[in-house]
Amino acid sequence: MLKFARTESLDGVWSFAFCPESEPEESQVLGTIGHGWGAVPGCFDTGSLLGKRGTGIYRRSFTGQGWLQLRFEGVGLRGRVWVDDTFLGGLEAPFTPYEFTFDAGEKEREMTLTVAVSNLLDETPGSLFHEFYDFYGFGGIYRPVTLRRLAARDGNGFANVKVTPLEVAAGRFRIETEFRKPVQAALRLTLDGTLLAEVEARGTQCLWEGEVPGLAPWSPESPVLHTLTAEIPQDRAETTFGMRTLSWRHGELSLNGKPLKFMGMCRHDSHPEFGYAMPESLVVSDLQLIQEAGCHFLRGAHYMQSDFLLDCCDRMGLLVWEESCGWGNTAEQCGDPAFRARQREQTRRMVERHYNHPSVILWGVLNECDSTSQEGREILDQLFSLLHQADPSRPVTFASNRHEKDIALDLCDVIAFNSYPGWYDDPMVVDGVPRVKVRLAEQAAFLQAPEYGDKPWIISEIGASAMAGDHSGFRWSEEYQERILQEVLTFWEESTRCCGVAWWLFANVNTYLGAPMILLKPRGMNNKGLLTEYRLPKMAWRTLCRRLKGRPDF
Ligand code: ADA
Description:
Largest sheet: 9 strands, parallel
Helix content: 10-25%
Distance between the termini: 27 Å
Number of helices: 9
Oligomer: single chain
Strand content: 25-35%
Radius of gyration: 24 Å
Bound molecules: alpha-D-galactopyranuronic acid
């Protein structure tokens, strides 16, 4: 994780007021006295406000002077921020970090921070979160808030420090240092506590490239991290990184030259009791469960992951697909200029913030957008260009559910299919399980075509719903889900075309309470978890653990 000096946490218990069904104007927000309490991080609608929509007004005080930077790692569905009665700006995209920098004046003083967070659904085409998304739109300040004190008189300091591994064997890598404003300063770079270089930084960027022979590589088997510190006289930034490179050609996705063949999980960073404000202990135990099951891959569905989770994945050696927020967006949405601008903005923030995490091996966008439409193709093209420009070191993808009808697969570095044979694909047959191998073989054959043959292929979702405790053997039973899993595992073991599988889903997750789709999601839950929402195993989980146990490769 990238850390800046003089940064403190503003997490804790803030005052809180809830305005049902409305998004109050500035004067009303600032005039509202919070008689309740709101945990930060926390979701306000997991407990007594479950299912309610409106605006939560959070407030607390802090002291400071000079240039200050407030950082919100993630709020939902959107927010507005004030210090005293000055509006600092909006928190437009859920799950996405925003910073606000301002001059608090020469004298140390107490200030009031007010954040109005709305979970009201915005159904205009430009909205980043819609009611039809199959994950619940919880509201709250659900990721950490920090205050950074910038020491320079003009508010200058580090904006970013990005490390790119270039050649693992030679220990060759590049450091890009970005400043908030132009500097002329001596920049000291320290690697794992030893001085690496001293360079004269001029302007807003400084580039260093060089070799440190013998620098230990990062891999899932040996996830060694290095710490880089950048210092100018008035500021200091620190980041961890790992020495690993990625390549994607000849149908293979390789890490440090070794082709990957992985089994993994799609996971929502959510729990019924906490919404998206996942306690660290729960994140750690989820990741441990995934690894203990024999999996090495995590698809962070369907939004930016927390800094904490990615730090854990870096340390544990879990490989991550990180994607910006989207779900089944229609051609109309994909073509909407406001939607496009917001997608670009959140995707840019994702890459900027998570660039240094070695665990992130794949950038994704727009899960299951209408990729049969020209509008879908265009927005994918725009987002992929942005990603390639910001980070040529990682492949890009999106999870397609249009398969053979898709008109955007050629734009992807890695092709990813969300596939539901035996479940959505074959609703009219009593037993759809025998369809699994037939359908996956058809997809594999389709992807041998010359235009796709060189691109690695991942099954980015596959699975079936199972109600824990249903042992009827029919659809919705644990047995039916388990039989589908057995078929997929066999396909994955035998296939030379498929690089990896991400099960849909690690654990059940809260979803629709109101949209018409609730009829497909009993209990307001997506029930395709291999674990229940409280992380209790269904049959398929046990089978997965048994079949993966002792496998040397992945
Ligand atoms: C899609 C979607 C998932 C989930 C899944 C399901 O593939 O990408 O987010 O909604 O369907 O369970 O229906």
